[in-house]
UniProtKB/TrEMBL annotation:
Keyword Transmembrane attributed: yes
Keyword vocabulary terms for this entry: Membrane, Transmembrane, Transmembrane helix
Lineage of source species: Eukaryota, Viridiplantae, Streptophyta, Embryophyta, Tracheophyta
Organism: Solanum verrucosum
Gene Ontology CC terms: membrane
InterPro entries linked: MFS_trans_sf, POT_fam
Protein name stated in the entry: Protein NRT1/ PTR FAMILY 1.2-like
Cellular location(s): Membrane
């Protein structure tokens, strides 16, 4: 959900050129193919995650820590792959080719993963119930599992990197230029289809896995992915396809290289003594004084050697424009605040234990229907959507009425409140788990981690709701913060930063869990993150996460004050 909320800013500012042969293509007739492909791909891949920990523990006989680490690594690749995919699509391949190739790769990966559920030799043999002997997975079986999941992550990342942008490209023909409302409608359709696909994955597809077995449960997403791949290629005759162009990410690396290669240059306090390389049509004439060492990347040493007749740099890896330098400075300036969002991503990536926790609680609604344990994540999604609606149509109007003037919460305020709600969510998990574990032991389930206790799973709703609210608040606020603070040319970086942040958060979550497992099981003690959640102490584990979150809030306050007023705050102060 966090990645979804960050993508709109990327598209609003982009402007690309069409080939002459493409001007009669595109338009609304292409959107069903693009939106259908994106929604089906997201539904298929999202359906694998919720029950994955149960599949790895029950079928591959993994312990909690090993299974969780595989999922964390998979999540990291899934979140970082779109960044690489966007770079490849913009610079070399093109967006349609990236989506098409990504769909085929995802289909292949999901088919390979489905084979693990239908071929007995692809996974360890079942446990011997009489003696409770379980064989671990062999090296080839683990390799086959990890390769299939890796292929899915790479392919899905390729699709996600270009879907929203490719649909936007179809509406950039000249006939649509005077009607920005059409683009807004497209964004709304994209988000609606994305949210619907998640709901389908967490309900229908999870239900099939739980009640009809792994073979059918993982086979259904393969069929969805097959339809998704066919759909994107069926629209081939109608698409407007853009030429790849240089990527902003390449420009950022060029500044780093150029500033290092020009490190011996002397910077003068008198700007008129130095000639800087300016981008044609740019209003940025001189680089800022902050991070001055980067200014060496845009100093023209010898105009005849450094510049071509048309004014472009002869070697862009030695001479960059002032705009490029300022773009990198803007990125480095927000890094401390970005790092505080990584800690929130650690909390959001805790997807394994909640499934095991819900699996031991009474999940019945009425006498006949039982909610699958892996479907409780849907309440976080619903909460995120609910917050977006309530914020615009209830909270702001009430606040405006109370203050007597238009109310507005700054992006930094919303990010901070999102971090606080994330802290509350893990604290609530710790409290609820402490109660659940106490009841399980009292009812005699200490050695039976799958025993269902007399405690309603509805007690899990507060923690899921807080997680959804936190994610919506922080993701939207962070995206708007980047869009407002960065130069207009850097709007696409917002999506990249959030995606990388989620990936780094998953890697750190894996490291934290492994460290806690190693420290707490020394001396023959039961690990806090034991596969037997009744013997473990996940309440203590989540208290550790709450401690990290509290320290992170304090760091955010310091970083926010050190950053100074953002542009929107300056504009508010200048209003009469």
């Amino acid at each position: 959900m966090e990645n979804l909320l960050c993508e709109k800013g990327e598209m609003i500012e982009q402007t690309l050129l069409l080939d002459d042969s493409e001007t009669q293509k595109g338009g609304f007739r292409t959107l069903p193919f693009i939106l259908g492909n994106a929604a089906l791909t997201n539904a298929a891949t999202s359906a694998l995650t919720p029950n994955m920990i149960l599949y790895l523990m029950n079928e591959y006989h993994m312990d909690m820590t090993t299974g969780s680490n595989i999922i964390y690594m998979w999540s990291a690749v899934t979140n970082i792959a779109p960044v690489v995919g966007a770079f490849m699509a913009d610079s070399f391949v093109g967006r349609f080719q990236m989506i098409g190739l990504g769909s085929v790769v995802t289909l292949m990966g999901m088919f390979l993963f489905w084979l693990t559920s239908v071929i007995p030799q692809a996974r360890p043999p079942p446990c011997v119930n009489s003696s409770n002997i379980c064989r671990s997975a062999e090296m080839f079986q683990l390799f086959f599992l990890c390769i299939s999941l890796g292929i899915v992550a790479i392919g899905a990342g390729a699709v996600k990197s270009s879907s929203l942008a490719f649909g936007s490209d179809q509406l950039k023909r000249e006939v649509y230029q005077d009607n920005a409302r059409l683009m807004e409608r497209y964004f709304s359709w994209y988000y609606a289809s994305y949210a619907l696909s998640i709901l389908v994955a967490l309900t229908c597809l999870v239900y099939i896995q739980v009640n009809m077995g792994w073979a059918l449960g993982f086979g259904a997403p393969v069929l969805l992915m097959l339809f998704s791949t066919l759909l994107i290629y069926l629209g081939t005759p109608f698409y407007a396809k853009l030429k790849p162009k240089s990527s902003l990410i390449t420009g950022l690396f060029q500044v780093i290289v150029a500033s290092y290669r020009n490190r011996c240059l002397k910077l003068s306090s008198q700007s008129e003594d130095i000639q800087y390389h300016q981008k044609k049509g740019s209003t940025v004439v001189l680089p800022s004084e902050k991070l001055r060492f980067l200014n060496k990347a845009c100093i023209v040493q010898d105009p005849q050697l450094d510049l071509s007749p048309d004014g472009e740099a002869t070697d862009p890896w030695r001479l960059c424009t002032v705009d490029q330098v300022e773009e990198l400075k803007a990125l480095l300036k927000v890094v401390p605040i970005w790092l505080t969002g990584v800690v929130l991503s650690i909390n959001i990536s805790q997807n394994t234990f909640p499934v095991l926790q819900a699996n031991t609680m009474d999940r019945h609604i009425g006498s006949s229907f039982e909610i699958p344990a892996a479907s409780f994540g849907i309440f976080a999604v619903i909460s995120a959507i609910l917050w977006i609606v309530l914020y615009d149509y209830l909270i702001l109007p009430i606040a405006s009425k109370m203050t007597g003037k238009p109310a507005h919460f700054s992006t930094k305020e919303r990010m901070g409140f999102g971090l606080f709600l994330s802290f509350l969510s893990v604290l609530v998990v710790a409290v609820v788990e402490g109660v659940r574990r106490s009841i399980a032991i009292k009812e005699g389930y200490l050695d039976d981690p799958e025993g269902v206790i007399l405690m309603s799973a509805m007690w899990l709703l507060p923690q899921n709701s807080l997680t959804g609210f936190a994610e919506a608040l922080h993701a939207i606020g962070q995206n708007e913060f980047y869009i407002s603070e960065f130069p207009r040319s850097m709007s696409s970086v917002a999506a990249s930063l959030l995606g990388v942040g989620m990936g780094v958060g998953s890697l750190l979550a894996s490291s934290i869990m492994s460290t806690i497992d190693d420290l707490t099981k020394r001396g023959g003690e039961e690990s806090w993150v034991s596969s037997n959640i009744n013997k473990g102490h996940y309440d203590y584990y989540y208290l550790v996460l709450a401690g990290f979150s509290l320290v992170n809030i304090l760091c955010y306050i310091v970083c926010s004050k050190a950053y100074g007023p953002c542009k929107e705050e300056v504009m508010e102060e200048e209003k009469p």
